[in-house]
Every structure is written in structure tokens, then in C-alpha cells.
Amino acid sequence: MLISFVFSFRNEETNLVELIRRVSDATKKLVDLDYEMIFVNDASTDNSLNLLLEMQKTFPIKIINMSRRFGVTPCVLAGLEYAKGSAVIYMDSDLQDPPELIGEMIKEFKDGAHVVHTTRTYRDGEGYLKLLLTKYAYRIINRFAEISLPENTGDFKLLSAQVVKRILSLKEYDPYMRGLSVWVGFKQVYIYYKREPRWSGQTKFPLFSKGPISEFLRGITTYSAAPLYAALLIGLMALILAFILLTYALITKLFNLSAPGASGILISISFFSGIILITNGVIGIYIAKIYYEVKGRPKYIIEDIFEK
To answer: Mean pLDDT across the stretch 279-292?
Structure first.
């Protein structure tokens, strides 16, 4: 049986050698198993490519170079497209997710699972604020989304070839991979583990950077139109409040209960302007998703591929 490993990476030269060694050691312990490692290079600017080319002489490595920086999800999809295995395990390249779980994941696959999630019971090396915000981000996504997204379950999964085929058949320009692996269905199981800190280097996804925020918005809007209904509900509540304020203003005017002033007008304008901007922003996110979909651009462009 052939297992494909897919790694999306950018500037991970200090982690790659250890990653390859640990994945290779984990697979050697398994009987009747061949493997390939597919490294998708998201336009690295360090020595990662040269390092992989050297390691390729010893290990079954395929290198896919992107033409520019596209991000994690397009790189993972590129790796899935070129994977030949009966199952694919994709994971980050920073060694926070232990390759030693590979044996247990493959056992679940042999027992009939099509998707094997790995769920973190503890996340070493991550701050309290990040853990707290991540926890509530998952809960907000689950409240809005039509799927049940498991908490603390990231980009370390096993997908059967059948699931990979179904995911690749979808033509979404900006997919949410963590959600897709749940949305496709089939038998899904969970393995629990303690997440380690990065082996080396700095995180590529600081808490308030573009990446985590985009993932959060993608998770909410990809599987539900609930934010649009929420915007409508907020608009109706604002309309009711405006009617109450108008009634109050008429009463105070008729009975001369208060002196006229500009503060109430300024507060009202600021409040309703904020409501309008929020609802327009929610609608704008969905329009932007439609805009990118109808243009029909490819999710990524591959510059070249190096394989034995």
C-alpha cells in the first residue's frame, strides 16, 4: 500500500531535515507500506529548495514549486492533486504535529475510516490569549456553519483516495479545507494528542495576522448564509430602536421636557452609520466570494516539479 505525505511549506529549512527523518522512521515501523513525500514550496526565499533537492537523492521526495506565494490551502490542494497513494496524510512542516502518530492514523484507515482527524488536547508553546480566541472562533463558526467543525482539529489529517477525489472535484476558488474534510462525509474518526511547540523558527501565522483572520471569515461564510440573516436582523432591530427614539423625541418636544441639543443627533447618526457599515461589510464578503468564483482563475500556478 502506498501512502502519500503532503507538506505545504515556506522558508522551513531548519525543520525539513528533522521532519523527513521522523516521517521516514515512523513509516519504516509499518509492514507492507510504501510512501512518497510531496513538498509544495510556497515560494520560499531561503535554502529550503536546495536542501530538499539534496535529500531527494536518499528519500522518495517530490517537490512542487509554486510560481509565487499562494498560501497554505492552494499548496495542500496541489499536493493532493499529485498524490498517488491509497491515502494522503497532510500536515504542516514545523513539527508541531508529531509524525509518530502516522502508524495510528494508518491503522484507523485500514479499519475502514476515510478521514482521520487529529485533535489537540494540549497546545504547548502557545499563549493563553491565542488559545482562548481560537476556542471561541471554533464555537462561532459552529454556531453559524451547517457542518459541525471539531474544535482543536487542524491541518494534520489522513484522507482516503476516495475523499481526496471528492475534494478535488469541487471547484471552489477559496475553499476552507478544515471544513471540506468534514463536509464530504464518509466514516470519520479522531485521534487525540498533545501538540508540541515549533521545532525551530518563528510562526508564520501570528494571532492577528491576515492568515488566521482570513481562515476565521472563510470558516463562517463558506458553509452558511447565516451572517446575511444576522445582518438583516440587526437592521430590523436598529429600525425598531429608531422608531422608539423618534417617539421619545416627539414626546419631549410636545411636552417641552428637555432642551434641544446636538448630542442625541450625533449619537444616532454614529449608531446607525455603524449598523449600515457592518451589514454592508457582511454583504461585501459574500459578494467578494462570488466575484472570485465567477472569474474562474486557477487556485494556483505551478512553476516546476522535481521528482526522481
So the answer is: 79
